[in-house]
Amino acid sequence: MDQKGVKAMLSKVPEQSWHRVRLVLVISWLILILSLFYDPISHNLTDPDNLLSLFRDPTLTQDPCVQVQGVCLDEKPYALGARLFWGMIVPSAIMIVLVFGHETWRRICPLYFLSQIPRALGLQPQGDISKNPWLVRNHLYVQFAIFFIGLNCRILFVNSERLVLGLFLSLTILSAMMMVFLYGGRSWCHYVCPFGMVQMVFTGPRGLLGTEAHNAPPKTITQSMCRTLDQTTGIEKSACISCKSPCMDIDSEKAYWQQLTKPGRKLVQYGYLGMVIGYFLYYWLYAGNFDYYLSGAWTHEENQLGALLKPGFYIMNHAIAIPKLVATPLTFVVFVALSCIICTKLEKLYKAALWRKNQSITQEQVLHRVFSICTFIAFNFFFIYGGRPEINRFPVLVQFLFQSIVILVSSLWLYQTWGRSSQQYTQESLADKLRRQLKKLPLDFSEFLEGRSVDDLKPEELHILAKTLPGANQQYRLGVYKGVLREAIQAGHVNSASSLEVLQQIRDELGINDQQHYQVLEELGKEQENLPILYPHYGPDPYKVLSTIKERQKTSTSNQRTILRESRKQNRSDQRTKLLKDRKDNNNQLGDQD
């Protein structure tokens, strides 16, 4: 089965099936959390003498021992909870996001499932997220700060302290439920959840096998958008309450391009890379060796809290008298700062190198490609080094196979992502709409397309066909443009304000001027049933919509007239200057003859 086949298969999985998967994962996760509070059984599974256990840990009795700051750790069989969570669940989530896209993870995420308990109980949101503009505007900084604090807490308090980890996960569940109770929808996922930030980093425009929402037919329930099952018809329907726009769950690539230059976006991308590298290297800076991390001893180290005021660095066999409580955040700050500085410099160098080769490229495209490189490095660093504690327990052949898969998957993702651009996305999103409108015309295209149909044309071919459009009069062209504009606004690819700029190419191809564009907008505005979709910020007031459109149309017409008057005035002035010059030249010639 090819890549498109896998995408189609995943997108067609019904919500009820995903619901069952989520339920199984939720039950498993709750059992794991309970085991962190009480688990008298699983320590037997890690006993190195238990040859029947898949989880036995031979490193507990290895020689030489695992040392931390020159002292051997006293290791013994341990409960499995922390090791399962940090060593298997978290890496699996990251792999799913990059390969299958955020849409698959969000449809199975147990935390999302639990966060929707208030909605399942019939509790209405207490407020509207738009009434909290500070959070809407700064949520990337909020998510980054929570992630930063979370990683510090993990090293300092949570890694091997099962009780603290259990409380940490329980508090996370309660926080998610409270956020949804306050604002509804996926407000937790979009505005607070630190893993939502991680999904943004590893998804990019879309996952390796993620679906292309912008090519979906109108009124399609795309990707991981909120949905519910109609009890009467048994058909899935949208349950979206517009808690985020643009929404990653509806169209991840649209959200990616529109938020590429949003405040905090660079910090998320570059800072995350710095935190990933800083997190894994800190174990070496703290213990003085790599064995401490690679053995996985940190998942079951006894008395983790007792080391908070002990030296936080041990370099070249010397302890540095900076408490671990201070050394840990200090390490993250340094690596985040270095990552941001280096990546920002890389942006400038890359852009300058392309200019030297006479290759024009936008700042947006430069940013996109540097972001993609950061994701590629973070993903490989995470699994090639960060995932070693569990991978090292397998035979060498399995380890090699796993690392090969990691490099292959990340390389395919980078190849797919590297050439994407917002212009390409816009052209593709409009191509399908243009195709549907062209098929409505009473024209036989087969004779012009050498037997091919409109469905067989690629996006660039469709735009060429629209530009030539044989046998179509102006009325047909306006009808095609009106249909494209309506679908584009309904899908959220443009709004009434941005449509003039975004659809410029199609207008040029169809021979539609700006005044005709506003006339089409006015016609759409008069269609009462379309007002909530086309102009949600105006509410049900059609008069305000129409007056705004007419004002823009009047302004556009006035501007055109002004330009025309100025042009005519300039032409008359040029002609007068030329006439005076000719007369002067003639007089000079007559004077020479005399």
Characterization of the model:
It is a single chain. With 594 residues, the chain is mainly α. Helix content is 63%, strand content 4%. It has 25 helices and six strands. The protein has a two-stranded antiparallel sheet. It has a two-stranded antiparallel sheet with strand order 3-4. Strands 5-6 form a two-stranded antiparallel ribbon. A hairpin with a 6-residue loop joins strand 3 and strand 4. Helix 2 crosses helix 8 (162-183), helix 12 (265-287) packs parallel to helix 15 and helix 23 runs antiparallel to helix 25. The longest helix has 52 residues, at 542-593. It is elongated. The N and C termini lie far apart (94 Å). Mean pLDDT is 85; it is low at 535-543.
Brief account:
The protein is mainly alpha-helical and 594 residues long.
> What global shape is seen?
elongated
- Helix content percent band: 55-70%
Q: Compute the number of helices.
A: 25
Q: Which oligomerization state do the chains in this entry correspond to?
A: single chain
C-alpha Rg, in Å? 31 Å
Mean pLDDT: 85
Query: Largest sheet, order of strands side by side?
Result: 1-2
Given the helix and strand composition, which structural class is it? Answer: mainly alpha
Beta-strand proportion = under 5%
Could you give the distance between the termini?
A: 94 Å
Number of strands: 6
